[in-house]
Write a structure and sequence with these properties.
Elements (H helix, E strand, L loop, with lengths): L14 H18 L1 H35 L8 E5 L18 H10 L3 E17 L2 E11 L10 E5 L4 H5 L4 E5 H7 L10 E4 L2 E10 L12 E5 H9 L6 E6 L5 H15 L6 E5 H44 L1 H9 L4 H41 L13 H27 L3 H6 L2
Parallel strand pairs: 3-8, 5-7
Antiparallel strand pairs: 1-9, 1-10, 2-3, 2-9, 4-7, 5-8, 6-7
Helix pairs in contact: 1-10, 2-8, 2-10, 2-11, 3-7, 8-10, 8-11, 10-11
Length: 427
């Protein structure tokens, strides 16, 4: 192997030239021992690749959750009848469910709330138009206030009105997906009758909606007046849940606190209601996913330590193999600091190249994940958005270089402390 020797000159040594020489010698050593260098870098490659993939998937799911909540107003407040908060042996009192009386109670007394709307989820059903059937249509009973908190892009026709609720009108709005499948020839669904098990409705509006439910989303949606759904179809007067919206300029937390106090007063301090906001739910979900991703990334980063041990081992072998070379360089005037710097740079270059390869593999896996999830339409039709975590990958690569220098310090010190006379005698 060619030995890089810089002749000593008077005055202060050229540190930049010394570092460049050390870097060149390090690359030359890697080229001479390609297979050994690759096997040494394997732990670092796997570590950086694993960290990149975990952060990539974690970021993808966080973006997915944000997009799922995009159809809701950021200040939406969810009110749910949930008696699980009752203490053992405590009864529910006179409240067995949540209905329009609860909505009216809040609207009459709440000073920080702009609107409260009740919603009834009727599940999925088979819709029929003539001999055409569409299974798995999500049917929801809504009130006009629903449009204050849920984004609905009406592309044709109109929305559900208060008059529809008052007259128990058999009308509905459907999603563009449901229209395309029930009317495949491009025919408009407006004015057409759709038959559900036990009730028929006339389409008065077509809506284009985003994916909105966590998990694989259902875009085959039919929304009808809540009173029609309750009194002409499923029976009862109860809501599945309610959504409230604070007045302009009122913080969500303040409105939530007021709603909670009013409901506790109404229920005589019985914990039969639960109040949450879309912001709080989104924050909790992102926090859980972020914490899980951090833990997994930390576990994956342990492989970097394994890679560092491999680098230390191979650097010790390198010092042993190159003892005579080290002695010759020191005899020609190389300082101990120069020898130390060269071996540290070799260790850093070894781990840094492994980190860069790991980044490349992580980026490739990201593209593969995007392609596969798009084909499987999971978690939605466009697949999992997996942006490459450049910052995390660079951080992992730099950390791998630091690991290489830390674990390469002991071999480098061993090389720098060699006695040149003894080293030259080494065969």
């Amino acid at each position: 192997m060619a030995i890089a020797v810089r002749q000593p000159v008077a005055g202060k040594p050229n540190r930049v030239a010394t570092l460049l020489d050390s870097f060149r010698v390090a690359l030359g050593t890697l080229r001479q021992n390609k297979l050994r260098s690759l096997l040494t870098m394997l732990g670092v490659i796997i570590g950086v690749c694993a960290v990149s993939i975990i952060v990539l998937i974690n970021s993808g799911f966080q973006e997915y959750i944000k997009s799922e909540f995009a159809s809701l107003s950021a200040d939406s407040i969810f009110i749910i009848y949930d008696p699980s908060g009752l203490r053992r042996g405590e009864g529910r009192g006179r409240f067995e469910a949540m209905d329009a009386n609860d909505r009216e109670y809040l609207m009459e007394r709440a000073t920080k709330v702009k609107s409260v709307t009740g919603i009834v989820e009727a599940g999925t059903h088979t819709a029929k138009v003539g001999d055409k059937e569409l299974k798995g249509v999500q049917v929801t009973g809504i009130e006009p206030g629903y449009y204050d908190v849920v984004v609905r892009d009406i592309v044709a026709g109109r929305r559900i009105s208060q008059q529809d609720l008052d007259t128990l009108a058999n009308v509905a709005i459907i999603s563009t997906t449901a229209q395309e499948e029930l009317f495949p020839n491009g025919e408009s669904a407006l004015g057409k009758t759709i038959n559900l098990p036990g009730v028929s409705v006339t389409v008065v509006g077509i809506m284009k909606l985003q994916q909105q439910n966590l998990g694989p989303s259902n875009t085959k949606v039919l929304e009808m007046p809540v009173t029609t759904l309750q009194r002409k179809w499923i029976g009862g007067r109860t809501f599945s849940y309610m959504i409230a919206k604070p007045k302009d300029g009122i913080k969500v937390s303040a409105a939530m606190e007021e709603i909670w106090e009013l409901l506790m007063r109404r229920s005589e301090n019985k914990r039969i209601y639960r109040v949450d906001s879309s912001e709080a739910i989104l924050g909790v979900l992102n926090g859980v996913i972020g914490a899980a991703g951090t833990v997994l990334a930390g576990v994956a980063a342990l492989s970097l330590l394994v890679g560092g041990i491999g680098i230390m081992n191979i650097m010790l072998v390198s010092v042993t193999e190159r003892t005579k070379e080290i002695g010759l360089r020191m005899a020609l005037g190389a300082r101990r600091g120069v020898i130390l710097t060269q071996f540290l740079i070799e260790a850093a270059v070894l781990s840094l190249i492994g980190g860069l390869i790991g980044m490349g593999l992580g980026w490739s896996f990201g593209l593969l994940i995007k392609l596969i999830t798009a084909q499987l339409k999971f978690p939605n039709e466009s697949g999992l958005s997996a942006p490459f975590p450049l910052t995390a990958a660079i951080g992992a690569a730099c950390f791998s270089a630091l690991i290489g220098m830390v674990f390469g310090f002991f071999p480098a010190m061993s090389a720098a402390r060699l006695d040149p006379i003894v080293a030259l005698r080494k065969e």
